[in-house]
Design brief:
This protein is of the alpha+beta class. It contains 2 helices and 20 strands.
């Protein structure tokens, strides 16, 4: 329920990746081992194994792409394909102070640097500085950032956006604020330029939205509620049966 509720809460969060809960069965009570011999010397084809319940084994990040929302804003960038933007974050939020995100809603801070539009305004890494007198900003599919100024209408390149990807991106640690960090499960990042060596391309004036499907999550929510009610009834019935058994001799 917590996983589904968090997905629904982030249905409009830019670049959010939904989580899926995975379960595993618990220990079994082996009351008769399969394959034992009976009194006639025949091998029993099946035994008696009674399970003791279920446990949450993991929550898995589902990294399929979200819908692209066209905003026409110069500093909104969507990644089409594989890769994450790199951010300079707090030391306790990422390995070597680097975090990763699919959110592309960037702004310009007081120093002219491109920063993510979250509560802390983490800088894009490598840092890209936009001149104060820039009249327009163009970001190519290859991640090159060019600006024009009143003094020179010829576009001037001011930086190169780089992306990072992982052998197991589902192993990234969600840190909040649209930021992920590297883990032993994800493996170290491989960095490169957009549109090269399998990395995704940049799409300026657009945002990748959350990949949460509200209808699907609501269906999962209803199924979870019904499963809980059924399990509650089963436990109640089992307790009633045990109570009756315990009073039989009385």
């Amino acid at each position: 329920m917590d996983v589904i509720a968090n997905n629904l809460a982030n249905v409009n969060t830019v670049g959010y990746k939904r989580s899926r809960a995975s379960f595993e069965d618990l220990l079994y009570q082996i009351r008769r081992q399969p394959g034992t011999e009976n009194s006639l010397g025949d091998v029993t084809p099946a035994g008696i194994q009674i399970g003791t319940g279920v446990n949450l084994s993991s929550t898995q990040l589902m990294l399929d792409a979200g819908n692209i929302d066209t905003t026409e804003r110069q500093l909104d960038i969507a990644i089409q394909g594989d890769g994450f933007f790199q951010l300079a974050v707090f030391p306790d939020m990422g390995q070597n102070g680097i975090g990763y995100t699919r959110a592309g809603n960037f702004f310009i801070n007081k120093d002219g640097e491109l920063v993510l539009g979250n509560s802390n305004g983490f800088r894009l890494d490598p840092t890209i500085t936009i001149p104060e007198n820039a009249t327009s900003i163009a970001i190519g599919t290859d991640g090159k950032v060019q600006v024009t100024t009143p003094d020179d209408v010829t576009p001037q390149e001011v930086g190169q956006i780089q992306l990072a990807r992982f052998a197991n991106p589902a192993g990234l640690i969600a840190r909040g604020q649209n930021v992920f960090s590297e883990s032993a499960a994800s493996g170290p990042p491989t960095t490169g330029n957009p549109s090269e060596e399998g990395f995704g391309s940049m799409l300026q004036g657009s945002l990748e939205m959350s990949n949460v499907e509200p209808v699907r999550e609501l269906i999962d929510l209803i199924q979870t509620q019904r499963s809980f009610e059924l399990n509650s009834q089963a436990i109640k019935a089992s307790d009633e049966m045990l109570r009756v058994i315990s009073t039989l001799r009385q």
